[in-house]
């Protein structure tokens, strides 16, 4: 696979994440998670079939914020969740030159079934899920 950011990569078929509904605004349906060294809590969600498309993402567990996403029965079925229902919530990161300006999108998390490698983007309604939430806590003076 060729990528704009990482050059030529060998990827195993059993590492490809299927996103049947894609990411809002994009046609790509197959992705792979890349974790380059020294990227800290971030990784790349690289489109397999589009070398130019990659998103910086982070696990919601890395965020200092109490996110409580709830999956509907239809979403659980689409993700082919088993009885234990283990999922990973990835947040798309808006990088910035200054660390205090880095934000994450809480309104459109990507939920991943790590066992089946099936993912979907959720679209959350309401003000409690901002599009640009600071990744690093803002410290008082």
UniProtKB/TrEMBL annotation:
A Pfam family matched in the record: FliW
Compartments, record wording: Cytoplasm
Gene3D superfamilies, per the entry: BH3618-like
Protein role: Acts as an anti-CsrA protein, binds CsrA and prevents it from repressing translation of its target genes, one of which is flagellin. Binds to flagellin and participates in the assembly of the flagellum.
Ligase found in the keyword field: no
Protein keywords: Bacterial flagellum biogenesis, Cell projection, Chaperone, Cilium, Cytoplasm, Flagellum, Translation regulation
Family: Belongs to the FliW family.
Subunit-level organization: Interacts with translational regulator CsrA and flagellin(s).
Record has Chaperone as a keyword: yes
Source species of the chain: Geoanaerobacter pelophilus
Transmembrane segments: none
Protein name: Flagellar assembly factor FliW
Alphabetical list of InterPro entries matching this protein: Flagellar_assembly_factor_FliW, Flagellar_assmbl_FliW_dom_sf
